[in-house]
């Protein structure tokens, strides 16, 4: 069996762990930088060339498309699907989670709880939306932020207006979101695989930072989920069509609120917090999915773009 790890950084913890566990199981693994893939488009036999060689012999891929050239990364992922190569997460699921605006709209439509939010494409209008999300303090996000970067807390209306005006120069949409003060700089990451909760950790900010991202110095430890937290996390992964998902949840006075849906959740924090080999479980799941699909006559039908 041959699989491809679609990523930009083969040396990070998650990609290294997946590679190690796949090799242990006798799987041939190739790190694939999706920005260097060439797509061959025709009516009969679509293909992808990487370093001049065809990737058509791969059995499956694990997509970890980052923010760098994500549009092209998504095109590469769809091309693999057109080639009938199984993807751990579908292009539809990854695209839904990648788009913060689409994420909020799906959560709203599927009756999944999240902090009150407003979205604006105009910095002048954005300042007028502060009261729509409960006033200040208010969270202001860039729609293309990553790992907590591009997310700020404005304590007053004046500071919020200044931040909105500054962000307005970036030519990206802005999200204004209710600040859940009772969460006290913590959130919960629920790691889901194949419709089951593999683990959950509570992440706490370092010092005075309201963001709990581990990449920003936050700390994590194992946490027990409430029935409601488990329910909304599993439903979110299902509605977003994700086999693998990291669902971030805030604990508020009004119950749990979904902060983010992540289609490429990292493994370092959750494996260490749970003391569990989640990378091996992912590889086992991938193997099972490929074996089951190959036995189905419908496997050789094109996946619609």
Automatic annotation (TrEMBL):
One Pfam family in the UniProt entry: RimK
PROSITE patterns listed in its UniProt record: ATP_GRASP (PS50975)
GO BP: SOS response; translation
One of the record's GO cellular component terms: cytoplasm
GO molecular function: ATP binding; metal ion binding; ribosomal S6-glutamic acid ligase activity
Keyword Nucleus assigned: no
UniProt KW keywords: ATP-binding, Ligase, Magnesium, Manganese, Metal-binding, Nucleotide-binding, Protein biosynthesis
SUPFAM superfamilies registered for this protein in UniProt: Glutathione synthetase ATP-binding domain-like (SSF56059)
Cofactor(s) annotated in UniProt: Mn(2+); Mg(2+)
Name the UniProt record assigns to this protein: Ribosomal protein S6 modification protein
The organism of origin for this protein: Halobacteriovorax marinus (strain ATCC BAA-682 / DSM 15412 / SJ) (Bacteriovorax marinus)
Origin organism lineage: Bacteria, Pseudomonadati, Bdellovibrionota, Bacteriovoracia, Bacteriovoracales
